[in-house]
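Data card: per-record layout.
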Amino acid sequence: MSLAPELLTTSLSGVLRIRPRLIEDERGFFFESWNARTFAERGLEVEFVQDNHSRSTSGCLRGLHYQIDQAQGKLVRAIVGEVYDVAVDLRRSSQTFGNWVGVTLSAVNREMLWVPPGFAHGFYVVSNEAEVLYKCTNFYSPAAERTLIWNDPDLAIDWPLPPAREPKVSAKDAAGVLLRDAECFP
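The structure for this 186-residue chain is written out next.
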């Protein structure tokens, strides 16, 4: 049985939804979450230099983050709970500049999202808690980090927020900028 994952395109060029192939039996399951050779054979040839792990409570919204210098590609997955994961195209030369795509990542569906350099990324926690792992193609650089405001009316991201409830955001994320004022990629 091949463990090669299924790579599904999204409405944004370069952003991929990834479904791993599982081996399951009465003991549990196994899957390869990353295999450089297998992914390269399928057109995703990247080198990861940093792994991040976050834990968040229900209603937490993290993002929308990106690095203008030292841009990062991210392979994102939820290992506990469920998140609504969003990528926003910040490549001015792209036909989909300013567009976004959102997918549900969960411990149940085990899907991953590939967010290439040139995109902002964020997620909203739908479950009681969630743990998210993401592999990065470049090191974190606080001086290069930028944040889009999560509720930019021009982006109009359809976050799955309960009626009349604001998400829990950090002070840094609450101070994010509108897309029209953001530093973007060529």
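Known properties of this structure: Residues 50-181 form a domain with the Jelly Rolls fold (CATH 2.60.120.10). The chain has two helices and 13 strands.

See the next section for split statistics.
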